[in-house]
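Hi F.,

I've been meaning to write this up properly since the lab meeting, where we talked about keeping a consistent format for the predictions we share between groups. The idea is simple: the sequence comes first, exactly as it goes in, then the structure tokens exactly as they come out, then a line or two of notes. No screenshots and no reformatting. I'm using this chain as the first example so we have something concrete to point to.
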Amino acid sequence: MQQSYDVIIAGGGLAGLTLSIQLKQSNPNINILILEKRKGSAAIAAHKVGESSVELGSHYLREVLGLKDYLEAHELPKHGLRFFFKSHNKAEITSRVELGPRQWLKTPSHQLDRGTFENYLTEKTIALGTQLQLDARVTDISIEAGNNSVTYLANGIQQTAHATWIVDAASRINLLKKKLNFQKPMEHHCNAVWWRIKGVIDIDNWSENEQWKNYLVSGLRYLSTVHFMDKGYWVWIIPLGTKNTSIGIVADPAVHPFETFNTYEAAIEWLRINEPLCHQKLAPEKENVLDFKILRHFAHHSARLYDGVEKWATTGESGAFLDPLYSPGTDLISLSNTLLSDLILRDKNGEDVSIRAEIYEQTYLGLIDSWIPIYQNKYLLMGSSQIMVFKIFWDWAVYWAVPTLLFTNKAFTDLRLLKQLFATPDSLGRKLGKLGNNVQQLFLDWLPYENEIFEHKFIDPYDLEILRNFQQDLDVLHGNELIEKVAANMQLLEKFAAEIFRHVSAQVKGTGMDIKVNPYEMKLDPENKLPPTEVADEQNVAPDFAIRKDVATMWFYGEKVTA
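Output, unedited:
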């Protein structure tokens, strides 16, 4: 085996394998060594989380890496994210408010069995010419620009390999973060456990109510990433292409201490108390359990990602990770790999990438910072179906309207577009961060007023025109009009936020539905002072009745504040 490479990737999981394929497909002559600690093929019942992909990550796998044919042949199609909220009788699934799509979705995504998928990616990258060393444990990394090296034990023998670029894709081992000391606190604290069950778990069989069963085409609930939710937690059920099923519990320790579910036996007892129907259906499957994994304080941050001078980088979970609620793991890999591969390929072609690396790092970390409020303290909201319906639809609207649209239009590697989007305080990207933070705070401020338990309702995100249009626009290439499209989407998001506020304020403060609202400054007044109906502010947003119709669709209190 040669000992000098263009790129050494520490870690042969999803992040490292996809990065190697992206690089090789762009430049077949680039020399890559992957060092992976496993000794053989990845296990089908792998101790890894992250089976559910969503639109951004699916676009990366299908269109950027060209894996569409494999995914459609070997991995399950995914029928969106599906949520079941609190009811008075959680033992009866039909009593719960259900949120999820009824019809097949235009934009595809997949449920990934990480073991079989990573084995396929391993074969593919080797076929492209990547060198893969299994049973390799990295013991040291030396960063000396122009002569970086990795020392590792392979089959018990110490070896050293040199490379222009060193990439840490070794997940939470955090090789470079510890080596170069760029840890950063993450103030979002949740814990998770998950296990695989041999065989199919289909929630469509959890009720004999034919009206409920027939509300969706048979099989679509099974293909969803299912969430059962109440205050401080959610439980997932994810089908896998191997006909096995992934089960997980994610909880805020302030509400559900980790020791109450951190073993298989404790987790089953926890389900009995908190999700009795899940307990009834899953507890008898003990003999079919394939593995059990725990992860404390899974959210983590990073002060650095890429260095274009010293030529090192992190990708995947070796950088930053937030929360699995909306299945963002593959998204983060897709974003990071796309930025990183662009740097490496440009450097390989002789370009000075030092400034570009700084811009990419600031862009990615800025996105992480703007997404933290989506999750931080929000597990407290999970016992309120009305707030969570608003929150989920808002979060999806933002996700589709801007970051996913930018990714599918290749904007994140366009310095001109990045400058327009993020360079100034009033740029669209920064305004989106401020708007999103303000709406997330509104949800928290709403919580003390919202105690109603709603039941026997079904809500489809695609009944909202704004969500339907944002999602269906993801595959449209906008060319030179991309900034104009993002600006138009931002105006719709501002109207959406303002209309959410009008409904909430009318319900809890008694304000009128005709008030103008500045979505960047709106807040529920804790002193119960009614806001003025007219304020001289150029950022005030007047009511938009198409948006009002959409918000009324997800408003459970009837029509008194929707006229």
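Notes:
The longest helix spans residues 482-509.
The mean pLDDT is 94.

If this format works for you, I'll send the rest the same way.

G.
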